[in-house]
Structures are given as structure tokens and as C-alpha cells.
Amino acid sequence: xxxxxxxxxxxxxxxxxxxxxxxxxxxxxxxxxxxxxxxxxxxxxxxxxxxxxxxxxxxxxxxxxxxxxxxxxxxxxxxxxxxxxxxxxxxxxxxxxxxxxxxxxxxxxxxxxxxxxxxxxxxxxxxxxxxxxxxxxxxxxxxxxxxxxxxxxxxxxxxxxxxxxx
Length: 166
Hints:
The chain is an alpha/beta fold. Helix content is 37%, strand content 13%. It contains six helices and five strands. The strands form two sheets. The protein has a three-stranded parallel beta sheet with strand order 1-4-5. It has a two-stranded antiparallel sheet with strand order 2-3. The longest helix is centred in the middle third of the chain and has 20 residues, at 72-91. It is elongated, with a radius of gyration of 17 Å.
């Protein structure tokens, strides 16, 4: 979202009339939606599909620590804006046109908090139900395991730590 080439590409696709043929997929921490006054939500309306794989490793102050200098308050507002925009597209006939899924980097410092994270997404209204019964949330949620540094990899957690993982 911070690359001028990203915005240039979106603009050229829209100007050429080809945007409606293009499927966009992002992996982003959702820290920003605006670049030099341009709102990506307005651009995404022109594209065939948009999938946001939100790299959200934690919530609240833990998010701020793990994703420093991240700001959970700002990021959660952005997630809400994305979700609300996508729900609006769905309700106006864009069946499964846009998807918001969570792809946290799972490690020994957050795996025991998955329930709390999911509950926060639900409480904030930023959990997108699978409108077409595909389990997008479940499909992508567990595909991003931290491998390095080794001491944070879940495969190397002490046995007693697993008692906290449901």
C-alpha cells in the first residue's frame, strides 16, 4: 500500500478499462488504506475480485508490541472499513467479490491466544462470514507458521506450554 508502483498499476488498469478483469490479492498488515490522499477502497470497487489476507498476529497492546510500531487502534479501524466496504459490495450483488481473511504469523508468543483473537474480530465486527459457504477464514488462518527464529517456532515450544493452547 506504500509503493507508488502499486497505485500506478491500479490507476493504469482502471484507466485502460481492464480492472474489471483483474483479481487482486494482498498480503497486508492493514496499517494504511490511504496513500497521498488516494483511498484504496475507492480503487478496489473497479476490480473483478479483491482478497485481503490480513497479517494480524495479535490484538490490542500485544499487537502493538509484536508488530511495532504498529497501532492496533488504527489497524482495527482499517479492518472495519475494509470489512464494511466488502459487505456493502456483497449486499449490492457482488457475491463473494471481496474477501477479508486473517493470516497471522503463528508463533509461540501468540498461538495460545487464537480464541481471544478470533473473538476480538467478531466483537469488532471485522470477521467476515463466508458468504458462499467456503471456509476462507479457516482455510487461511493456519497457513502461516513462523519458522525462524527457531526459539519462537511452535515446534520448539516446551511441552508444558501446550497446555495453554486449545
